[in-house]
Design a protein that fits this description.
By secondary structure, this protein is mainly α. The protein is 70% helix and 8% strand. It has a three-stranded mixed β-sheet with strand order 1-2-3.
């Protein structure tokens, strides 16, 4: 499996380094890799072939070979793998020395909270969307979910930027999520065409 780092994640880390907190930099990297390990193990458990893992500002993205051929149950399990690994990491951090434990728990709780938001393409958004599609495999549901995610994300960003106007990290994460949702929305017609071909998809 190939591991890459998105340029915006490097910018996020640069902002952390400029604030002089190298220890936080190390904790974030370790926490994100552990989170992605959870996705990787879950993918292997359901027989999915992982081609690449890209570390992005909010966590990571797995490129799965022939992802559209996987059942929604398989996709839900893969999406759950990261948050489950993060929960394990939080509990494993408790007995560590206080200075290290507090940092690890704080970072992992942040990663967990962000990833469980019901917004595409976060883990919470994928779990919720795949659950809807499992109930009714109709491509318009995916299109509607992308649109709803965009507007919900916009509202959340406006509120957070009002509360934390000088947060460069928040701005970087927001920029990436916006671009990801817009990119997936533009490619929605390809998914719609595929859904029409693969009508007997297993659930």
């Amino acid at each position: 499996m190939k591991i890459t780092i998105h340029p915006l994640f490097l910018l996020l880390l640069l902002s952390i380094i400029l604030y002089g907190d190298i220890a936080l930099y190390s904790v974030i990297i370790a926490s994100l890799l552990f989170h992605e390990l959870g996705h990787y193990i879950a993918a292997k458990m359901v027989g999915a072939d992982i081609e690449q893992c890209k570390i992005v500002p909010y966590g990571g993205e797995m490129t799965i070979k022939n992802e559209m051929l996987l059942s929604y149950n398989q996709l839900i399990i893969i999406a759950l793998g990261g948050p489950l690994a993060t929960c394990i990491g939080i509990f494993a951090s408790v007995p560590l020395p206080d200075l290290l434990s507090s940092r690890l728990i704080e970072v992992q709780l942040f990663i967990l909270a962000i990833n469980l938001l019901p917004i595409w393409p976060l883990d919470g958004g994928r779990i919720f969307c795949y659950s809807l599609l499992k109930w009714r495999p109709f491509s318009k549901i995916f299109e509607f979910y992308l649109t709803a995610s965009f507007y919900l994300l916009t509202v959340i960003i406006i509120v957070l930027l009002y509360l934390l106007p000088h947060s460069l990290s928040l701005a970087i994460i927001s920029l990436f999520l916006w671009s990801k949702v817009i990119g997936d929305w533009r490619a929605r017609k390809y998914r719609s065409a595929f859904e029409k071909i693969v009508m007997n998809r297993l659930t």
